[in-house]
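# step 3/5: fold
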Amino acid sequence: MDRTQGQGEQNEQPTGGPAAPTAAKAPVAARTPAAAGPARVVSLTAGEFSLTVNPVDGSEIEPLRPGTEPDRPAKRDAAARAARAAAARPPVLPGPAVTARPLLEREEERERLVRLLGRGRSVRLTGPSGSGRSVLLDAVADRCEGLAPDGVVRLCGYGHQQPGELLHALYATVYEAERQRPGRAELLARVREIGAVVLLDDLEMGGPALDELMRATPECAYLLAATPDTRAPSDDSHIEEVFLAGLGKADCLELLEAGVGRPLTDEETAWAGDLRFASEGLPLRFVQAAALLRQRDELNHSDEDDEEEEPGVFEERPRDAVHVPLPTLAEGAAPAELLASRVSESARAALRIACALGGELPHHAHLPALVGDTHADTAVAELLACGLLTPVGTRYRLASGVARQLEEVGYGETVSEEARTAARHYAWWTGHASVVPERVAAEADAVLAALAGADVVAAVLLARTAAAAFAASLHWEAWERVLRSGAEAARKAGEVAEQAYFHHELGVLALCEDRLDRARAELETSIGLKGALADKRGTVAGRRALALVVDRETAGAAGSPPLRLEAPAALAAAPEAVTAALPAAPAASTPLAASTPRGASAPRAVTATPGAPATPPAGEASEAATTRVPPVAAVGPVSAEAVTRMTPVVPVTARTAAPTTLSEVFEDAFPLNPKPAPPTGPLPAAAPAPAPRRRRTVLLAGAGALTVVALGTVVSLALSSPDETAPPPTQAPAVSTTSTATDPATTGVTSGNDPAPEPPVSAPPAQTPEPGQSVAPTPGRSPARTPSRRPSSTPPAHSTPPTTTSASPTPTGTDTSPSPSESVVPSPTTTTATQSGTAVSPATDR
């Protein structure tokens, strides 16, 4: 305290802590870390690395040299455990001693908890804030001292959402391992050997995180104190539930009388009964109610000593007694405002600081410097007696609901100013060489709260000094939080050098915790910033740490199994369909009959479908679904895939030469007597596959020929009745070789005004065509043979214009001859156009 007030104790250390550095120190009045003394360089063992915490240039990390590995830590004995448990209790406060609160109506709960813990069961003690959970844990700890081989371990779960830091705290409590932070594998191996009764107060985690904590320590029995809004454990955790209810009416009156120090009046008893109903019997409300009654007695001068004494000249209180009534029920349910108005000015200043720090009250040794009063350290005991503070681990913070009640009455108006003052004070204190890292770690919550509310300049200064202390004290969760806050503040302030330092420390921390991706990102950022500043020493330190990251990544990649890039042997188990292409023959430009010999199999596409039977014929081959350029070599036989094959296209005639006429092409495509394809092996039912390209070409050619025939017929019918004034044709009609079925006995049906029909003109024999014509078909002409023996009939068409009369012979009837006859069909190319634009058919003789 004296050193904090500026009066000179340089070697202030906690009991049992390591000795401070013996180097010369500068005067305490200096306000910069550099003037406070030489930098504290601490060497640690972090897993497989040796870590040197350097607050100037950044921490240096290197692998442990052979022969320097730490020995297996030994467990602490009973005396060492007792000394550490005493150091873990809240500090003794200066001023009058605070009376211990009695444990009322909790005997049944205490006996049940001790019985369950003695059987090795874990229990979750659930109760609202202010229900007396911490007092009950103290009573249970005294009864469970000899139950477990490693004794009783007290831990605080406030602010811990993951079990990592709790496991490290349990390891440091049971084992004697100074300056050592084991890796995760070693940590889990050591905590599995711990057999202790663990009392975990202010639990804030549940579900999978709590399950992980309990699985890591199977030999420990846990007593978990939590509020009802804390996440419940999983169903498989098998944790007993004990709910802590409020006190009865008699116990509430007994607690109130013990706090006031006198019997209650009838009016006070009735008021206490109403308060119990409103607060559901919470012990904290009656501790605060007792403080209200004590303040009321002081204001009413009800003490006998005050009545006998005469007020002096320098007495601050008024000479005339003022009767103060009992607080109302609303004031008893929310008494923070009324209690704060009746405490000392130093206590009210401490409350303002606590509100600015999010409810965290600094250590009583810091209050004289923060408040400006040399006796401000006694304010903690005063506030604790009023029930405005509650112990949390080794520190104090505002009780439940007090911060909200104080902010509503104006205590939060000076939050920014108080937080900035606290940040500048902690920046000087944490950087002072006389302060050991363990003391900084005990003040971690207040330091982090001051860092969150400070301006960017104060935040950068505080983060730079506190980071090295948190790293040296092995409080690495606070180390990471202060580094991230410092990096953000340095970025906003434009301090590139400080930003590079914070990123370097974050990279080293991630490397120690085996988070290689995060370590690489942070170190590369730090190296880039230091390179911009031309900081050669910092760049070298960053590159050394980055080389360790690369080595760890290489070792991890070599130790991991390689990826399986080849296809699995059994394709039948694959859920997706596999498409395999069989080897194809070289493509040729010859027609279909020449490119595919009779009896040969055409190229086929093979599709494998899950669930279909795999029965490929012998000699077939398949491969993975890839794009092939023919010719290709055959691959191994298909054995474990379902194959869907296309039906081969087999020629139906035994031609040895390519077809030269359309009739031959039609005979190949539509035979008179279709011949089935030669039988092949049993194939599964397959969906119709597209025909080969040559067959599609033949069908297109046939369709084109039929289109030409239909077009010629339509044109001949449309032009069969030309104008009578049209001149006769200038040339003989052209003979077409289109095969049509014509009945000689068929007569045209004419009207009564039509002239006598001309006799039909028969086509000349096909063997003696007219000069200038060829027997072989030419492109655009109809084939010489029909695909069917049935003659085609032309539907009758009648045209009766009002001015002209013409007769169009319409062949009707059926074919009676056994063979088709050829008729003359006008070719579209031999029609003659008149001057009026009307085409005249040469087959019509006018």
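# step 4/5: annotate
Residues 14 and 439 are 7 Å apart (CA to CA).
# step 5/5: archive (pending)
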